[in-house]
Amino acid sequence: MRRHKLEKTPGANPTMHPDCAHLHSIQGSGDDSSSSSSPRLAGEGTGDVRIQLSSSAGESRENPSSRGSRPVSQSRSHGHGHGEAGGPEDAAAEPEEQGGSSLSELRYLLQWLHKSLPYLLILGVKLLTQHITGISLGIGLLTTYAYANKSIVNQVFLRERCSKLQCTWLLLYLSGSSLLLYYTFHSQSLYHSLIFLSPTVDFMNFWEVLWTVGITDFILKFLFMGLKCFILLVPSFIISFKSKGYWYMLLEELCQYYRMFVPIPVWFRYLMAHGELDTALRWTLGILLALLYLILKLLSFFGQWRNFRQVLRIFFTRPHYGVPASKRQCSESDDICSICQAEFQKPILLICQHIFCEECISLWFNREKTCPLCRTVISDHVNKWKDGATSMHLQIF
């Protein structure tokens, strides 16, 4: 009614406060329950319409929104700070999760093995029965090698006190084992491999080739171990104990060098595999594999040749570790060898001025390069295999 009345008043120029739009928006929000927030009109008599908003109404309308926004902002800031603090914890938890996954995989693997164990045992028994001859022969050859090698080393250590009967038994035992093996499998002509000939085996079967190479390697070991037993039987006035050590070293290096060449023809025929090369692609593949094998063997040949040449130099030069010691020098050392704790036998004075028996220090330098007392370097190389030992390495390829 008032607004309508004001519009009809002549000469009136009604003006509205710029905050009127804000008023309408607030009133339209449905907050009409508070009487103190209602607007008051002023200047009815002057013809001007003025709308005054109380500060309490503005505050009452702003406070809820500000109060409502503050917890949100606080909760957001709190959540952001908590997220930042939880970052290292998450990073530390990642390795734990990875460890847990690996443990679970290991647990699954163990469970699978537990469930598959009966089947694996069945397959193992079947394979054992199929290859019982080869497995039994391999165990027999390995035990024969271990027994003979240990016995020879013990006899070499005893020097002049070695048992001639024991050495004779070892020589006969090794020779008899080799002959019995070749006689048992004479149909395969395995002895042909010793002189780079072709045995009568199926070169297209991997296990046949592995069988031939393995037996030949053990037989060569037995052969050279028998030669070491023969040197043990030679009287010391013909070959001295010190010279025997050089012979053992030379024989072992020759054995390793020869064993490196013996498998070449067998593996070369297997890689070529003439029976299967019925196409150009298989021919090419076989030739490439055989050439690659020969290249690798040549590289190993040159590496072994340096060692063999050094052994030959030591064998012919017979390097000395010192000079004979005088009686006065021996008396200053109480005439007692620090190694054998007995009186000096052919005392040798080292460059570090320590005196030892010639045989004692020769045995020492079979394994070491330094003086037993002061650790001064005396020799520039280690004279391996002078103790009569044979390498355990199996030359398969």
Report on this structure.
With 397 residues, the chain is mainly alpha-helical. The protein folds into three domains: 55 residues, no CATH class; 191 residues, no CATH class; 42 residues, no CATH class. It contains eleven helices and five strands, in the order ααββαααααααβαββα. β4 and β5 form a beta hairpin. α4 runs parallel beside α6 and α5 runs antiparallel to α6. The longest helix is centred in the first third of the chain and has 76 residues. The N terminus is likely disordered. It is found in: Endomembrane system. InterPro entries: RNFT1/2, Znf_RING, Znf_RING/FYVE/PHD, Znf_RING_CS. It catalyses: S-ubiquitinyl-[E2 ubiquitin-conjugating enzyme]-L-cysteine + [acceptor protein]-L-lysine = [E2 ubiquitin-conjugating enzyme]-L-cysteine + N(6)-ubiquitinyl-[acceptor protein]-L-lysine.
Count of β-strands:
5
User: How many separate structural domains?
Assistant: 3
The backbone outline, from C-alpha atoms, is elongated
Uncertain segments of ≥5 residues (pLDDT<50)?
A: 1-86
Strand content: under 5%
Q: Calculate Rg over CA atoms.
A: 49 Å
Q: Which structural class matches the secondary elements?
A: mainly alpha
Mean pLDDT: 75
Distance from first to last alpha carbon? 117 Å
Approximately how much helix is present in the residues?
55-70%
How many separate helices? 11
Query: Widest sheet: strand order?
Result: 3-4-5
Largest sheet: 3 strands, antiparallel
What letter string, H or E per element, gives the SSE order?
HHEEHHHHHHHEHEEH
Biased composition (Polar residues): 65-76
Domain RING-type: 337-375
InterPro entries: RNFT1/2 (IPR044235), Znf_RING (IPR001841), Znf_RING/FYVE/PHD (IPR013083), Znf_RING_CS (IPR017907)
Subcellular location: Endomembrane system
